[in-house]
């Protein structure tokens, strides 16, 4: 999970874990890329607070690193629904 607001990011990571997902949250671009390179994920979740330039950067970088990765652009209020839809 990538988000810009630490309080919301922490809350969403806990929400994901409470719903059976394994999640790591990062708020900085360089840390998000490094975490992605060190781990194998089924998806990358990009929160609503991430600006368009960073969001576009993540889409390119993550797809270049793992072409089949699911990238989910979401908002805290719809995150669980958006994850379910991405994995149908």
Rg, Cα atoms, Å: 12 Å
The N- to C-terminal Cα distance equals 20 Å
Q: Order of strands across the biggest sheet?
A: 1-2
Largest β sheet strand count, sense and barrel closure: 2 strands, parallel
Please, how many domains?
1
Separate helix tally: 4
Overall form: globular
Helix content: 40-55%
**Overall number of strands:** 2
Q: What string, H for helix and E for strand, traces the elements in order?
A: HHEHEH
Write out key terms for the chains shown.
88 residues, mainly alpha, two-stranded parallel sheet, 4 helices, globular
How would you describe what is shown here?
With 88 residues, this protein is mainly α. It has one domain. Helices cover 51% and strands 9% of the residues. The chain has a two-stranded parallel ribbon with strand order 1-2. α2 (29-38) packs parallel to α3. The chain is globular and about 30 Å long. The chain starts with 5 loop residues before the first helix and ends with a helix. The model has no long low-confidence stretch (mean pLDDT 96).
Q: How do you describe this structure in short?
A:
With 88 residues, this protein is mainly alpha-helical. It is built from four helices and two strands, in the order ααβαβα. The protein has one domain.
Helix/strand layout:
Elements: H1 6-18, H2 29-38, E1 43-46, H3 52-65, E2 70-73, H4 79-86
Helix pairs in contact: 2-3
